[in-house]
Every structure is written in structure tokens, then in C-alpha cells.
Design goal:
The chain has 70 residues and is of the alpha+beta class. It has helices at 40-49, 63-69; strands at residues 15-20, 32-37, 53-54, 60-61. 13% of the residues are buried.
Length: 70
């Protein structure tokens, strides 16, 4: 049997989520942001903390538009 490494590399893990605003923006085609974390829930928590609304159909509303529709 082969000897074990002293400090073996760990398997990579994680989750990333890109969110795109479903409304048109004058200064850009769409507003977007990326989040990364250990799970989908980590990414959702970060996005919501930043003011993004993630809808049940998996579309999103950016913080600027969210403030205008509230």
C-alpha cells in the first residue's frame, strides 16, 4: 500500500449563484451580481441581505428596483 500524504488536498465544495434583475435598466442591459457560499441557502441569504428579491419562479429583482416597487 502507498503511504499517505502529510497534507492531502481536500475535495473542493461550494455553491455559486448569479442573479439578474428582471427589469430593464437605462444604463445597462441588465443588473447582475454573483454570490458564492457553502450552499444555495448561503447564497440566497447573502443576496437577500444585499436587498435582492428572489422570486418563486427563480427570477430576481435588484435592490434598486425592489426599493421602487415597495
Amino acid at each position: 500500500m502507498r503511504p499517505l500524504l502529510d497534507d492531502p488536498l481536500k475535495c473542493s465544495r461550494g455553491y455559486s449563484m448569479d442573479v439578474y434583475c428582471k427589469y430593464k435598466h437605462e444604463h445597462m442591459w441588465m443588473k447582475e451580481h454573483s454570490y458564492s457560499g457553502e450552499s444555495l441557502h448561503d447564497c440566497l441569504r447573502q443576496a437577500r441581505k444585499d436587498g435582492w428579491i428572489i422570486h418563486r419562479d427563480w427570477t430576481a429583482t435588484c435592490p434598486d428596483c425592489a426599493d421602487k416597487i415597495k
